[in-house]
């Protein structure tokens, strides 16, 4: 949905009634409503879309890991191995009745300077030689900071890895994109993926993408069984650039941005690679010898640096490309060869880290035969793994749990799903947006910027069902501790409207109504697009569209501006309303802990909801209220932090998908946010001494620059196409007010 950046903040309306005497009178006086009316007119049930062919279920319920990044197996054994990002490696027996994990090694405490582990592969002759190979990364910018080493594994049960047995095999630059996946091919050679060694902005800043004379941005192929005169490996005789002047002979293919997992098809020997995209596309490649996959001349079909010099071979297109309307960070998968799901035999199964979608692709060695979506999950998919029986597992990064595909339960399309807003049962009068009986209006403390649009919000709970408060966090179904738990078929809706004459409410026209429907397991997003007459809205299909609106605005050149409005697809809505973050970012206890106008009576919303029984189990200690960023009576820092929370913290939080190392939720302290003095990880835009936020120096603050620009590099990354001048001024003034010594090195640190 539009302004998915924090679409979901929706709350209630109540009618004020006369207070009663005594204690009841006191409570009623503090409540906007005295009694509750049931909502019995809902027609929002089921889904208008065909059901997915598969679902996911958790396996090995006794196992969980901390930020797992690899799941693999050792040849000739039943054991599987899980690698955590910071260097711990565990093993477990997948066929044991009660699988337990055993620590194999903690490289984080034994390898000096190690920051992450990205690859683990066992030698094909592991049963005899007990060799495994591991990719780990040291400090970013270290020219030899990405390391592939060989280690020896014990013959004990469970096995362990001896850190002292390390033999370094190959090194290259450590940077923003490292790759580092390891796989032995059917030819017995070791294949190694490497990213371009740079951050997101500017793209391919080191110009490695089209340069096979460097190891970054390539897939390498080396022979670890035979050392050469000066290296612990040799170059296979048929490597494509072995005799190419200026090229590294290790290179097998090049032109990759950030290849996140490679795998070989055990049936055909084909090499699959998932390459994380930049601005518009995520790519899947069936990698061929000597091929050039285009980065950073192109990103799939999108030109990036078409004027730059190209490598020695022509650019090859992706086998499959997913646009950023359905995918944001692709995670490479495995080829299914198991017996449990025979319809998937031979299919490459892969997914997306941000959207949780899983797809399959089939290839005959020359042509893509089929590609389809299998399921839209709530998982943050970091990688896949395959056991000795060919069964494929899905690894969730946030919860650290393992899952597998299963046939979806038999469900049918709800052919009566309301195709018009007037049929949803949310409104008694759609044209005037008068809520139906039992539907409650509400307001939020910090509303996101909506490109000059205004918003009205409603909450609808079936019958007399109620909200409660999650006591613990369960990422699986989007339960976040301290947030609201909804009953099945609960609904939140927000209507966005534009004044066609700037500042004149009489000219206001509704554009779209965004609906979030809780189906009992997860939130589903729908967009109803209003007709030009403003009398009703029609359900959009699961595709994005755009509309143009002409606004009379004295501040615009010629007194008129034409504003483009993006109507998001259902998948785009969920890009922000991610399950792992709780799905709802506006409708939270802190956002609605504020007064609301109940038809002339102003009363606190939490008090009112509790009084009428729409919320139960609210802790006595209220959450800190989220302030209105426009309220000048609130301290500047609190207003600016609330603004950033509403507009940016959907992504820039743990598990939100944002790539910068910051968490800017309002509940975090400024120190915890990692804003102050932090070096930009995704580009400086040519700013001298740039920081994410430089105290007292707004014009060295990349955060402010991103807010002020349009096009590539703009933040919010999507959902807004107009600069918020007031919000920009607010953040500017806050940064300028901060003392220079708040950040290490102060404003004079330009290193």
Task: Write a compact overview of the structure shown.
With 751 residues, the protein is mainly beta.
Poorly predicted tracts of residues:
1-29, 473-478, 745-751
**End-to-end Cα distance:** 41 Å
How many E-type strands?
40
Number of helices: 9
Overall, the morphology is: globular
Helix % is under 10%
Strand content: 25-35%
- CA-atom Rg in angstroms: 27 Å
Largest sheet, described in full? 6 strands, antiparallel
Strand order of the largest sheet: 29-30-33-34-35-36
Molecular structure report:
- With 751 residues, the protein is mainly β.
- The chain has a 6-stranded antiparallel β-sheet, covered by helices on one side. A 4-stranded antiparallel β-sheet has the order 1-26-25-24, with no helix packed on it.
- A hairpin with a 7-residue loop joins strand 37 (545-552) and strand 38.
- The chain starts with 21 loop residues before the first helix and ends in a 14-residue tail after the last helix.
- Residues 1-29, 473-478 and 745-751 have low confidence and may be disordered.
Annotation keywords:
751 residues; mainly beta; four-stranded antiparallel β-sheet; globular; disordered N terminus
Write the layout of secondary structure elements.
Blueprint: H1 22-29, E1 54-59, E2 68-73, E3 80-84, E4 88-92, E5 102-106, E6 116-122, H2 126-129, E7 131-137, E8 146-153, E9 161-172, E10 182-184, E11 190-193, E12 218-222, E13 251-254, E14 259-264, E15 271-275, E16 281-287, E17 298-299, E18 302-303, E19 320-323, E20 330-335, E21 348-352, E22 357-363, E23 368-376, E24 381-386, E25 392-396, E26 402-407, E27 427-429, E28 434-435, E29 440-442, E30 454-460, E31 468-469, E32 484-485, E33 491-499, E34 508-518, E35 523-530, E36 537-539, E37 545-552, E38 560-567, H3 570-576, H4 589-592, E39 595-598, E40 601-604, H5 605-611, H6 636-648, H7 670-673, H8 702-708, H9 725-737
Antiparallel strand pairs: 1-26, 2-3, 3-4, 4-5, 6-7, 7-8, 8-9, 10-11, 11-12, 12-13, 14-15, 15-16, 16-19, 17-18, 20-21, 21-22, 22-23, 24-25, 25-26, 27-28, 29-30, 30-33, 31-32, 33-34, 34-35, 35-36, 37-38, 39-40
Helix pairs in contact: 6-9
């Amino acid at each position: 949905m539009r302004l998915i950046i924090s679409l979901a903040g929706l709350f209630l309306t109540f009618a004020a009634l006369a207070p009663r005497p005594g204690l009841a009178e006191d409570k009623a006086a503090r409540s906007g409503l005295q009694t509750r009316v049931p909502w019995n007119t809902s027609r929002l049930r089921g889904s208008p879309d065909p059901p997915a062919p598969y679902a996911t279920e958790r396996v090995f319920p006794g196992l969980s890991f901390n930020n797992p990044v690899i799941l693999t197996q050792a040849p000739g054994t039943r054991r599987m191995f899980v690698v955590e990002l910071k260097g711990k490696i565990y093993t477990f027996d997948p066929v044991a009745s009660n699988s337990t994990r055993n620590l194999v090694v903690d490289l984080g405490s034994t390898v000096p300077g190690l920051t992450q582990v990205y690859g683990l592969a066992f030698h094909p002759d592991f049963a005899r030689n007990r060799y495994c190979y591991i990719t780990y990364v040291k400090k970013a910018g270290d020219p030899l900071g990405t390391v592939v080493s060989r280690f020896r594994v014990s013959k004990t049960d469970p096995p362990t890895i001896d850190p002292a047995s390390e033999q370094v095999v190959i090194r290259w630059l450590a940077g923003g994109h490292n790759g580092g996946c390891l796989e032995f091919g059917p030819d017995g050679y070791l294949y190694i993926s490497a990213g371009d060694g740079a951050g997101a902005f500017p793209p391919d800043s080191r110009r490695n993408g089209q340069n096979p004379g460097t190891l970054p941005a390539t897939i390498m192929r080396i022979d670890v069984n035979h050392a050469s005169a000066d290296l612990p490996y040799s170059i296979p005789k048929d490597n494509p650039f072995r005799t190419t002047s200026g090229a590294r002979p290790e290179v097998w293919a090049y032109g990759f941005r950030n290849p996140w997992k490679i795998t070989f098809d055990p049936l055909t020997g084909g090499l699959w690679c998932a390459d994380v995209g930049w601005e518009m596309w995520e790519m899947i490649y069936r990698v061929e010898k000597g091929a050039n996959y285009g980065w950073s001349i192109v990103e799939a079909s999108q030109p990036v640096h078409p004027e730059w010099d190209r490598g020695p071979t022509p650019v090859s297109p992706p086998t499959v490309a997913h646009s950023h309307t359905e995918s944001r960070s692709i995670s490479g998968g495995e080829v299914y060869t198991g017996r449990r799901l025979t319809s998937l035999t031979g299919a490459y199964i892969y997914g997306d880290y941000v959207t949780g979608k899983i797809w399959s692709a089939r290839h005959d060695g020359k042509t893509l035969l089929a590609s389809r979506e299998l399921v839209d999950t709530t998982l943050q998919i970091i990688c896949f793994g395959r056991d000795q029986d060919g069964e494929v597992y899905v690894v969730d990064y946030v919860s650290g749990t393992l899952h597998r595909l299963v046939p979806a339960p038999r469900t049918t399309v709800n052919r009566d799903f309301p195709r018009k807003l007037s049929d949803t049962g949310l409104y008694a009068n759609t044209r005037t947006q008068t809520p139906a009986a039992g539907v409650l209006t509400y307001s939020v403390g910090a509303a996101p910027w909506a490109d000059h649009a205004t918003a009205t919000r409603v909450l609808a709970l079936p019958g007399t069902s109620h909200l409660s408060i999650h006591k613990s966090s369960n990422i699986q179904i989007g339960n976040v501790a301290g947030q609201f738990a909804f009953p099945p078929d609960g609904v939140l809706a927000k209507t966005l409207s534009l004044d066609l004459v700037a500042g004149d409410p009489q000219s206001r026209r509704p554009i779209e109504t965004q609906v979030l429907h809780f189906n009992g397991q997860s939130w589903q997003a729908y967009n109803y697009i209003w007709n030009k007459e403003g009398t009703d809205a029609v359900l959009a299909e699961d595709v994005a569209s755009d509309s143009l609106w002409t606004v009379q605005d004295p501040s615009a050149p010629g007194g008129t501006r034409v504003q483009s409005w993006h109507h998001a697809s259902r998948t785009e809505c969920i890009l922000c309303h991610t399950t792992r973050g709780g799905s709802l970012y506006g409708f939270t206890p802190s956002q609605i802990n504020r007064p609301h106008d109940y038809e002339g009576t102003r009363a606190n919303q939490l008090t009112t909801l509790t009084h009428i029984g729409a919320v139960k189990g609210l802790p006595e200690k209220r959450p800190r209220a989220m302030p209105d960023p426009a309220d000048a009576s609130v301290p500047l820092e609190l207003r600016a932090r609330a603004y950033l929370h509403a507009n940016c913290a959907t992504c820039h939080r743990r598990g939100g998908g944002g790539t910068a190392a910051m968490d800017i939720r309002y509940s975090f302290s400024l120190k915890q946010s990692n804003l102050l003095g932090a070096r930009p990880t995704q580009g400086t835009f040519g700013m001298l001494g740039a920081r994410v936020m430089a105290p007292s120096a707004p014009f060295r603050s990349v955060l402010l620059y991103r807010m002020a620009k349009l096009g590539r590099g703009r933040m919010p990354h999507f959902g807004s196409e107009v600069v918020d001048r007031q919000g920009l001024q607010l953040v500017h003034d806050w940064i300028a007010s901060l003392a220079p010594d708040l950040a290490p090195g102060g404003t004079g640190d330009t290193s």
